[in-house]
Design goal:
With 75 residues, the chain is mostly helical. It contains five helices and no strands. The radius of gyration is 23 Å and the shape is rod-shaped. The termini are far apart.
């Protein structure tokens, strides 16, 4: 279990899989890739970055169109 924790910590620190493979003594990097698939914390952080609002405008563009809003209100 300590090796699993070490592998995960190395991956979270940004160490390339090839180096982690060598550190853990894996013959094939595919074995080491299990750590990348299992690392839910990294996935959670990536999702948070994707939805933190920096990728999307704060106000939808249609709400910034005053003439469109006036027309919608007139309906």
């Amino acid at each position: 279990m300590a090796r699993v924790a070490s592998g995960m910590h190395l991956l979270q620190s940004g160490v390339p899989l090839e180096i982690i493979r060598d550190f853990l003594g894996h013959v094939d990097v595919k074995t080491t890739e299990i750590y990348a698939r299992a690392n839910l914390e990294m996935k959670r952080k990536a999702l948070e970055k994707a939805v933190d609002g920096t990728l999307l405008p704060k106000i939808p563009s249609w709400q910034q169109n005053k003439s469109l809003l006036e027309w919608l209100h007139s309906l």
